[in-house]
What we know:
With 313 residues, the chain is of the alpha+beta class. It is built from 11 helices and 13 strands. The chain folds into 2 domains: 142 residues, CATH 3.30.1330.10; 161 residues, PurM-like C-terminal domain (Phosphoribosyl-aminoimidazole Synthetase, Chain A, domain 2, Alpha-Beta Complex). Helices cover 32% and strands 28% of the residues. The protein has a 7-stranded mixed sheet. A hairpin with a 5-residue loop joins strand 12 and strand 13. Helix 3 packs parallel to helix 4. It starts with a helix and ends with a helix. It binds magnesium ion. The site of magnesium ion has 6 residues, from strand 8.
Amino acid sequence: MTTLHQLGEREVIRRLAKLLPGRADVRVGIGDDVAVVAVEGGHRDFLLTSDAVIEGTHFLPGAAPEQIGHKAVGRVLSDFAAMGGEPLWALVDVVANRDMPLKRLEGVYRGAAKLAGKYGLSIIGGDMAGGPELQLHVFGVGEIPKRSAVLRSGARAGDVIYVTGALGGSLAGKHLSFEPRLEEGLWLRESRWANAMIDISDGLATDLGHILEMSKVGAEISADAIPVSTAARKMKTGRTSLEHALFDGEDFELLFTVSAEKQPGFESSWKDVFKLPCTAVGRIVKAPRGIVLVDAAGKKKSLKDAGYEHFSG
Ligand SMILES: [Mg+2]
């Protein structure tokens, strides 16, 4: 019998999606950072997304409660950021052991409420259930002007590929304390800079792969240009810091593409508005699909041929 692990997440989602009925008011269904649905007669679309954080998988039992709450809400906010949207409401389902101290759960909610409040997200309900370990399932609703969401499918050959911040090594702490890039995502959408956008939850290589697949294009990225975080440089895992920057998940930075002719204007505008670094890491090229890594000497190697594929599975 085929297991979920054998198929991989992408294929499992593709097969499940085939089982589901559609509706005429769905603008973007399964396959982007969030679903986009039309509001009848309105001037805006709703954005719907949900995310789970589970003890032992997304955080360790000893993690600070406030950070667990921060992460649960932050993941959902990061998905809104990736569309250029604005958060509105959230429901939170909590699965918790009945012997858990109330104080810990209050800490989780304080962390969740603090980040939610900062970005105008109101937590207005949810459910509680008993279970072996702590789990938070956050379902978020956001909004965006009608038909303006920045999708994964908008990248065109020639586009410059950008990432915000620095990548890799989030396990050292950033995965619990990251800032969702809502302001940046909103600005990128409002100023019409970004053609395609995603947040980096599964690692640069995997998430760029999602853009390539949905846009039916390829990419060349420069190994030297990739902004490697200090945390990635300090990791002692036997992998290079570049490998951490390419393959580590949970950076929650934005990855997006900008038309080549807009590059100078975009880069100077970004610097006028944000202190956060934004780095050009490569270019979108015509299919065949896949990511080609260009080293300092100009030598090209497909990420797959370089033996990297096992990391991203
Ligand atoms: Mg996402």
